[in-house]
Amino acid sequence: xxxxxxxxxxxxxxxxxxxxxxxxxxxxxxxxxxxxxxxxxxxxxxxxxxxxxxxxxxxxxxxxxxxxxxxxxxxxxxxxxxxxxxxxxxxxxxxxxxxxxxxxxxxxxxxxxxxxxxxxxxxxxxxxxxxxxxxxxxxxxxxx
Length: 144
What we know:
By secondary structure, the protein is mostly helical. It has one domain. Helices cover 50% and strands 0% of the residues. The chain has 6 helices and no strands. Helix 3 crosses helix 4 and helix 4 packs across helix 5. It is elongated and about 85 Å long. The termini are far apart.
């Protein structure tokens, strides 16, 4: 997993978030399963963008991936009961949009998630290059 339930509470008030995840007829800890499912849904959404550039599942979770997963998970939890435009929770609409914009940049190769390889660069996995055989090789250019 890219984030845990406790990670959400570092960004949002636990009691309020639990309130958004709880239904009136829930057993005591039913909200935990709902939050876990929404974290999984957020992770799946993130993976949809990462899959074009990186081999999944990620073995190391960079902070950038963890942070956008937290933002998306919180947005999904709040969205269960609706986010009023002028409420304190409305900032999560912008945070969700920013997370998606960042992930679109990752998908398109414009943003980096911070995975460092032994060579010191990010490691996209789905790139391959094929070129035609050289027409003008180094022997051809001798004397020019």
